[in-house]
Amino acid sequence: MKIRYFSVLGILLILSFNIVFSQKQWKEYAEEWINVETFVSKGLPKSALEIVEKIKLDAGQTGNSPQFLKACLYKIKLISTFEENYLKKAIESTEKEIILSKNAEKAILHSMLAELYWNYYNMNRYKILQISNTANFENDDIETWSINKFVDISIKNYYASIMLSDEIKNIPLQQWNTILEKNNYDINLRPTLYDFLAQRFIDFLANEEASLTKPFDSFEIKNSLFLSDATTFSKIKVSTSDTISFAYHTVKIYQDLIRFHLNDKNPDALIDIDLQRLKYILNKSSIQDKEKKFLNTLEQLESKYANLPISTDITFEIASFYYDNKLSASKPDYKRAMEYCDKAIQRFPESNGAIKCSNLKYNIQQPSLSFSTENCNLPEKPFLASVSYKNLQKIYFRIIPVSPEKNRSLTQKLYSKELINEYLKIKPISSFERNVLNFKDYQQYTTEVIIPEVKEKGHYVLLASTSADFSCKDETVVYRSFWITNISYLSRYNNDGSLSYYVLERESGNPITNASITAYLNEYDYKTRTNISKEWKKFTSDQNGYFEIPKLSGNENTYKNFYLVFRKNDDMLLTDEYFYQNYHYTEPERNTVSTYFFTDRAIYRPGQYVYFKGIMLEKQNQDFQILPNKKTLVTFYDVNGQKISDLNLITNEFGSFSGNFQIPAGLLNGTMRIGNESGNTFFSVEDYKRPKFEVKIEKPQGNYRLNEEITVTGIAKSFSGSNIDGAEVKYRVQRRAYFPYIDWWWRGSLPSSSFTIKFNAKADENIKKNLYPYFDFIVKADITDINGETRSDEQIITIAYQSLNINVDINNPTDKKSLATVPISVNNMSGLPQKAKLVIEIYKLKTPANTYIDRLWQKPEIQIISENEFKEKFPLFEYNDENDITKWEAEKKMLSAVIDYPQDSVIKINDIANWQQGSYRIEISTKDFYGEPVEFKKYFTLFSADDKTMPENNVFWVTTIKKTAEPGEEAALLIGSSIKNARVLYEVEVKDKIIKKEWIELNEEKKKISIPIEEEHRGNIFVHLTMVKNNRFYKHKQTIVVPFTNKKLNVTFQSFRNKLLPGQNEEWRLTIKGNKGEKVAAEMLAALYDASLDAFKPHEWIFKIYNDNFSRYNWTAYHNFDLSVGATCFISSFKPKI
User: Fold this and answer.
1) Does one domain contain both 828 and 794?
2) Percent of residues, the chain, with pLDDT higher than 70
3) For the residues 602-615, what does the mean pLDDT come to?
4) Parallel, antiparallel, or unpaired for β 368-373 and 394-401?
5) Is residue 907 part of a domain?
6) How many CA atoms lie within 13 A of 691 on its CB side?
7) Would you state the torsion angle of the CA atoms of residues 1111, 1112, 1117, 1118, taken in this order, to the nearest 10 degrees?
8) Residue 21 and residue 67: Cα distance in Å, rounded?
9) Torsions phi, psi for 1090 (to 5 deg)
10) What's the whole-model pTM score?
11) Number of domain units in the chain
């Protein structure tokens, strides 16, 4: 009871106009309220309620509105402690009080009642959302209302609270000071009771939950005048059929508030509400270039009121605009934001806007620091740290040695400041500082710094700070733990419950033999209430660096949670992650029976027959057999799972059976099913009205581009093929880009079955043209015939600045043998072919001499390390964009040609045999219908399967030569590496088992892997390739497709007509053969159904019994090839300069 009391207090008493006890103007009822509190403290709410009722009665009779309203609220508070459905009673009581009240009291009670209704919805949200909305359904029982009803009645009461606007506009809010929470409003910004109640209404309309309901013809804010000055905005005529639109109601209230205050001598209230209005329109509208219009209006407003303190609120909004990057620039314009903040502070330093600007300046000027390193780094070699910083010129670093056991203990017990203080007690092995570039623009930048080599292997913590003393009191301190080690490991969970591991050298990838591995269980100690580590098992790696943790036996604990410690001589590595192992029971494979059901339709009316067919199969050793002469009981179930009827059936020689059920009338509609002991199928039963026509919107033909009028045609046809005349067309066009763009149109009646839609395909000007953007325009049309039936369709039309789209069908990488002819296509944006004269050039590119590895973070924005030093210490990382193929120079032009498309639809390369392996760029240029240049570029790597040299510099290179194969054929892959002494683990997985495993050595070469395909490989097999080299982990999984072509039947129609007369008899002839053309004994199921029903529920049959295999195996490296983990101690007392 007590818990519920406090929740109700929070919901009902903390209103926007918190009504509190007053001693100034009205009778105090001091003794009565003391008695009320006494009874409440003693847990006697009913006794307290008796006194409250007396106060309410007397205050109401004497016109003591503050005490009357306080009593009303206190009454709700009290009944909530002993009434189960107290909100419902509170609503009923408040409605009665409204009838008896008048003027300001009535207005406040309406606002209070609106909030009570919405609180009732919130407390019963789950149940209410299950209730569907029924049009024109009137019911006074609140427990049967849908969310639409609650939204509607809340809005009506909020409107009622401001309906007496002429009266409450003349009531100064100051008169109600005795009952208002003083910290909850500014009397200059909410000068009247109307302002206050209107603001409560706006606050409700801002509730996203309340705006869940949205009609199809929803109100949209798209007129740019909504972002104009207050006077212009107040005169806009706003209307809509969307009467529950929160945006519509909000705009109307803003208009009325602005009109009310336009001629105020003190413009504070006007400016405050106008700023609210502008921000609301910015966030909710689909106005083109709304950000620029918003900023322009703010600047005009600031200039108009620059001599008033309230103008600093406007200046703050402009500063916030730049701070929040509303113009979608690459980065926020903090310098502009600072300039506006300084202007506000200089004009009126004590104003509310200046105070907010001071806080914004604090955020802009505050320094920040974070960094990342690799979790494991190589001994006696420097390594990189990626640093992100703001407002800094120098960063200080320390490297301290901390054993992994001690570090784990510290991080479990201490946090942030305390942990860093413990680290600072340890003598560092290295201390250094790095200067970084500060452009005085307050931006966040990333750079890289060199961490000096650490000679001794082990576990360390790297500290970075904005000050030399590493104090968390006034500065920022960041820490990351890392390893200096040459040990790496790979792990894999196996299908039988065991775990496999490889221990490999981190730099060379060679196996670490005779490594010592200890597993420690992580267990919870209930005495100390902490996790403790306990040694569990020990293992030793073999000559390949391999060891295995066997599956748990039946007498062991069924669950193990452990980490591993790897040791080899003076080197060690402790896993950051925990491994989990459960007792694994392998259930013996059994034969299983399945029944597949097929119905003649997906949706029925009550009283109709459901015609069905079933096929019974038994799975035996991954194969299926039909079950002839099998008895089965097929049952028909209603929506509640209750049996309606059943049939005893026997399968025929093909393992199938058939039958029908009649759907009884009078049952609850919904999803019903039929099924037997080994399968079922579902279908819908509804009182639907059969569609009589359909709508199709065609893709536009010819050429079109952005910022021009586009014509789209559509057609409305009955399913019998006749025209739909006299229907109404309603359509809209929506641009799908970074900002919404919507146009609604009515066309009136449809003179014939066809219709046209014209719209201006306007581009989003915020997206630069040189980025070659594409825009999707979604055209949606709704056709309503003379009988009131409505059908819809939509078409997505892609439009760009160019009207053509060029594409070249070339794989990457691609085999020389397949490049003699290259298919090419030129289409408009709807995918329809277009004529074009194409200029084609292919270049061989000059590739970099070095082989690079990837960073574990993004390349830095600023590089403070000199190029010579970087390349000397980190030759495996690119300094600039050496590995970016788009920036490689052309070494030689290999082909130049001009073709006319579509007469020529391929690029012919006659001398392809003479082309060398390597990287290439194909360039195609033309002009579209409008004379606009259209360019196409594509990069690809050319290789020869017969050449053992690498086609490009790559540490780990894989491509497939033949990935689909039949039994008796061979699948083939190429693997390669541009570096020496690379070792690749090659494995083949077939049906949850690794059937082949070997290590392949690569020395600046590529090799071919051939895999003989056998019958048991049907359903696909998998090739796993895994490698560790240069402190990087590489893996590739290739699916080899081996289809069930042996189960395929070839079905062809010998005769077929797709147009028939009603009642006409028709015979179709089919031929069924096996996959090799042989004769087969087969049974075919065919059904003819009304295709118009697909508008309600599409009908399809699914009968896929030979499913593809799934790969169960996967080598992972977890965090030992990942970024380090750590945290930050933030500054606590930094003060900006003002």
Assistant:
1) no
2) 90
3) 95
4) unpaired
5) yes
6) 21
7) 110
8) 8
9) -75, 110
10) 0.80
11) 6
The Cα 608–Cα 636 span in angstroms is 14
In a shared domain, residues 758 and 852: no
Instruction: Using the structure block, give the residue that is written with the tokens 């600046």.
Output: 1004
Q: Which residues contact 1081 (CB under 8 A, 6 or more apart)?
A: none
Judge if 335 and 414 occupy the same domain: no
Give pLDDT tens digits for 959-1002.
999 999 999 999 999 999 999 999 999 999 999 999 999 999 99
Stronger pLDDT, 779 or 340, i.e. the higher one:
340
Helix (H, G, I), strand (E, B) or coil at 956: coil
- The CATH number that applies at residue 972 is 2.60.40.1930
- The gap from C-alpha 140 to its chain's centroid, in whole angstroms, comes to 41
Task: Select from 62, 58, 60, 63 the least CA-distant residue to 32.
Answer: 58
Can you give the residue range of the structural domain that contains 1018? 957-1040
Same domain for 571 and 467: no
Same domain, 480 and 374: yes
In degrees and rounded to multiples of 5, residue 703 shows phi and psi of -105, 145
- 59-98 pLDDT, tens digit each: 888 888 878 888 888 888 888 888 888 888 889 889 998 9
Work out the burial of residue 629: count CB atoms within 10 Å of its CB; fewer than 13 is exposed, 13-18 middle, 19 or more buried. exposed
Q: What is the CATH number of the domain that holds 785?
A: 2.60.40.1940
Q: Are residues 724 and 737 in the same domain?
A: yes
Q: Is the pLDDT of residue 213 over 80?
A: no
Q: Which amino acid is at 660?
A: N
Say which range, 298-312, 751-765, 1063-1077, has the weakest mean pLDDT.
751-765
| Identity of the amino acid at 833 | P
Rounded to the nearest 10 degrees, how much is the dihedral formed by the CA atoms of 572, 574, 580, 584? 0
Same domain, residue pair 373 and 475: yes
Using the predicted structure, report yes or no on whether residue 570 has a pLDDT greater than 90.
yes
Q: Of the candidates 875, 906, 926, which is a domain's last residue?
A: 926
What residues contact 1038, with CB distance under 8 A and at least 6 apart? 958, 960, 963, 973, 1022, 1023, 1025
Residue 371 — very low, low, confident or very high, per pLDDT cuts 50/70/90?
A: very high
Residues 778-800: b if buried by 16+ CB within 10 A, e if exposed = ebbbbbbbeeeeebbbebebebb
Give the tens place of pLDDT for each residue, 217-238: 568 888 999 999 999 999 999 9
d(CA 945, CA 936): 28
Shared-domain flag, residues 777 and 752: yes
Which 3-state string (H, E, C) describes 176-243?
A: HHHHCCHHHCCCCCCCEHHHHHHHHHHHHHCCCCHHHCCCCCCCCCCCHHHHCCHHHHHCCCCCCCCC
Which letter does DSSP use for residue 995 in this model? E
Phi, psi dihedrals of residue 162, rounded to the nearest 5°: -115, 10
Q: How many H helices and E strands in the chain? A: 20, 50
CATH number of 479's domain: 2.60.40
Residue 563 makes CB contacts below 8 A (sequence gap 6+) with: 519, 520, 522, 533, 574, 575, 577, 578, 579
Q: CA-to-CA distance for 53 and 64, rounded, in angstroms?
A: 14
Q: Residues 908-965: pLDDT tens digits?
A: 999 999 999 999 999 999 998 888 899 999 999 999 999 999 999 999 999 999 999 9
Among 1017, 1040, 1063, the domain boundary falls at 1040
Note whether residue 566 is domain-resident: yes
- C-alpha span between 449 and 455 (Å, rounded): 19
- The answer as to whether 381 is a domain residue is yes
Q: Of 1084, 150, 302, 208, which Cα lies nearest the Cα of 615?
A: 1084
- Is 238 inside any structural domain? no
Token pair recorded at residue 1020: 């696909």
Dihedral sign, Cα of residue 1071, residue 1074, residue 1080, residue 1082:
negative
User: DSSP string of 56-84?
Assistant: HHHHHHHT-HHHHHHHHHHHHHHHTTT-T
Q: How far is CA 721 from CA 512, 695, 751, in A?
A: 76, 12, 17
